[in-house]
Amino acid sequence: MKFFVKLLLGFALSLAGAIAPAQTVTQVGTWNYAPQSNIFLSVSGASGQSMGTAFSTLVMGTVVSAVGFPASNYNTATGIFTVPQTGVYQITGTIRWTDNQAAGIGYAVGVHSSNADGYWTLWGAIPTTNNVQRRASYPYVRTDKFNAGDQLRMFTYVDGSTMPMSFAAMQIKLLF
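Given the sequence above, the corresponding structure tokens read:
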């Protein structure tokens, strides 16, 4: 009961902002603080790249921000990010196809160590709409553990067609 009361009290205090949200209870009365990450990457680009019926890496030519490691961990020529240290990372991103693509075309986006379908791949389709421009943007979020040296890339796939990119962006943050 004493543990339960301390846990509830800790939760209430964290909601009130008195305790940092990255805390965990390991035993009664002991709080451990997760280390704050100082590793972050933001890249963008891919304008005009035409993606098709093979899982293909998106190459984004601009490193917007690289904190905690050299910008060269993201290769702007190949689109591959080399993980600098083992940990849990959150990857976010977005793709936007050029306007006026045919409604119903299916496509996929993912971030992984290879260009392949799997639980890390999200699927969508160009919407059917009365908007003649048929604009389609697609967000991506993945949180997973990666090892130092893993090589990650954002990739796409288009069902039975090719579609050019308007833009793409990706952010990678070490959580802990």
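Residues 87 and 145 are 5 Å apart (CA to CA). Try to locate this feature in the token string yourself.
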